[in-house]
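hey can u run this one w/ flavin mononucleotide bound, need the structure tokens asap thx
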Amino acid sequence: MFETRMTKLFGTKYPIIGGCMMHVSKPEFVAAISNAGALGIMASAMYETQDEFRQAVRKTKELTDKPFGVNLSLFPAMRPIDNNLYVDVLLQEKVPIAETSGHRPPEDLLARLKAGGVKTMHKCVSVRHALSAQKAGVDAVTVFGTEGGGHIGEVGLTTMVLVPTAVDALNVPVIAAGGIADGRGLIAALALGAAGVTVGTRLLVTTECPIHDNLKKALASATELDTQPILGTLRNTVRAWKNPAALKVAELESKQAELDEILSVVAGTATRRMYEGGDLDAGVIPCSQSIGLIHDIKPVAEVIEGMVRQAAQVLARLS
Ligand SMILES: Cc1cc2nc3c(=O)[nH]c(=O)nc-3n(C[C@H](O)[C@H](O)[C@H](O)COP(=O)(O)O)c2cc1C
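ok here u go:
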């Protein structure tokens, strides 16, 4: 069902990617997504050593025989990241797919991946950046609309406009991300010309997602009004769940507070306290407007199968 250029390129059953989520996209969760017929993407930047990352890749390989990928972060980070160290492991462990997100993928990094037979994709928020990634040689591009959870950047384009514009401009398959949480979003993205979708926030609220139950429950009862872009003053805009920490960041930004003060609220250590300890005010969590479509915590496979089933129903109704 729904064979596309994406399913052919990456060898997945469905045209759905489980978006990489920092401190969340760990082996068990990523494998659950791949086992459900979508493409799980591991986060790499949260592993401080090559060895920890290698163990995580091996664990994922043990848990799934389906394709999965690894995200290489090109965003500004508090801890300096040398992506070449992750690429070493990725090549040695024969991970089939790598995704970059953030700034333009460096040519030497892409060249190493390509020489190793790794399929590459890049995630960005504008057609200009998508064209630049295509020129650099990636196999697919994900365009990420401003309604999504995570690094939405400063251009403010919606998925509804960004996807068909990118489809018109690019030759490589385009994946749609931002605001997609059910089968209606999936079929709409395919109708816009996308070869698949990347879903983040919907997968946060699943049984296998390794965040605290308090947080899953709070997210399941949030509405589409409960998100807020923050960190725009640092030109690193992130759409986040509107909790006290996100509101604190917005307030500090409006007062032109010191960088250190802002960074202390968005620090990964604070987010991990929320993810692991369930303290809902402790840190910032990226979150999409699609949170308004999410009302229950269910297993990953039910989310993925449900999306495909609903997309097929919509298609049948329309034809
Ligand atoms: C909690 C969370 C953490 C995320 N972390 C990352 C990340 O580390 N790197 C990245 O490229 N994208 C990250 N994203 C973005 C997702 O990979 C995906 O592109 C996005 O969630 C899709 O939009 P949606 O949230 O509307 O489904 C994150 C998203 C969420 C919700």
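The pocket of flavin mononucleotide is lined by residues 19-22, 24, 43, 71, 73, 101, 123, 144, 148-150, 177-180, 198-202, 204, 285-288, 290 (CB under 6 Å). anyway lmk if its weird
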